Amino acid sequence: VQLQESGPGLVKPSQTLSLTCTVSGGSISSGGYYWTWIRQRPGKGLEWIGYIYHTGSTYYNPSLTSRIIISSDTSKNQFSLKLISVTAADTAVYYCARGDRVGLNNWFDPWGQGTQVTVSS
Amino acid sequence: DIQMTQSPSSLSASVGDRVTVTCRASQSISIYLNWYQQKPGKAPKLLIYAASTLQSAVPSRFSGSGSGTDFTLTISSLQREDFATYFCQQSYNIPYTFGQGTKLEIK
User: Does B93 score more than 80 pLDDT?
Assistant: First the structure.
């Protein structure tokens, strides 16, 4: 399985960040995986944003839940992230990844290569 | 949120050395702890899941141990390609959280 992020690299403050992850080598509608967004902000480490399960159920980071929507398009084998009302604090490298789980343990593998998003006017 | 604290934040070592990185959780997380390796400009790569299970194709010089709040990642004999940043990640509670990273540098 391979994942590839796409979307604009520059977003203006207060606007909406929209990213898409295209999955190849496997179907996002096949069971058991959690299609995930993670970001890495400068000097802030890695932050789990949320994921969408193959059923369409979504789980978001509570710190971001009021601003994010994760959705999927099974016909295109893609899932997407929308983050509204962005500020400079949302500047980061955004990764998509496949989440897997055994019991309560949930890990992320593989990851996309990441895409830099800068919020600036 | 569960806070994950790694130590040290950076470490200098030589090829062939045995190194250990520690990750401490702010509350018990059982064995729901994963380790990743990240090289500059690249995405993180899963090394170990469930505290001690080696991901497929990861060299056996990597090992993980621990449960509850204290975990370790050990590299038994450092190779040049192991110089990278290592992160731990808990999945006991949402939001899943990561340690701040340990940068392993060549001495």
Answer: yes
Q: Whole-angstrom Cα distance, residue A67 to residue B13?
A: 43
Helix and strand element counts for chain B (H, E): 0, 11
CA distance A75 to chain B (A): 26
Whole-number Å distance between alpha carbons of A91 and A84: 13
pLDDT in tens, A62-114: 999 999 999 999 999 999 999 999 999 999 999 999 999 988 899 999 999 99
Question: Does residue A90 sit in helix, strand or coil?
Answer: helix
User: Nearest CA of chain A to the CA of B91: how many Å?
Assistant: 5
**How many other C-beta atoms can be found within 10 angstroms of the C-beta atom of residue B90?**
26
Residues 6+ apart with CB under 8 A from A121: A12, A13
How many angstroms separate the CA atoms of A62 and A29, rounded? Answer: 25
| Chain B residues with beta carbon closer than 8 angstroms to that of A59 | 94
Phi, psi of A88 (to 5 degrees): -60, -25
Q: Are A89 and A39 in contact (CB under 8 A)?
A: no
CA B34 to mean position of chain CA atoms: 7
In one letter, which amino acid is B9? S
What tokens appear for A16 in the block? 């909406």
Cβ within 8 Å, pair B43-A109: no
Average the pLDDT over B10-35 and give the result: 97
